[in-house]
Amino acid sequence: MLKIEVKDGENIDRAIKRYKRKYRNVKQLQEIRERKHYIKKSTKRREQIKKAQYKEQYIREHSEL
After folding, report:
1. pTM (2 decimals)?
2. pLDDT in tens, 37-48
3. Is the dihedral of CA 33, 51, 54, 60 positive or negative?
4. Residue 2 DSSP code
5. pLDDT category, 53, cuts 50, 70, 90?
6. Would you give the DSSP letter of residue 63?
């Protein structure tokens, strides 16, 4: 559970902005979306490998410039 303490004289918009940033950094929404559907371990691993290959290729292409 996320807790945001609003300080004396602090604008409520600023407190809401801090809450949203904290929520995003905790990656709670991403976890909820991942748990919506079951994904096999082999499929997760395959996706990780594809991402790693893409990143490596991207770095190679852009490091030569």
Report:
1. 0.52
2. 999 999 999 999
3. positive
4. -
5. very high
6. H
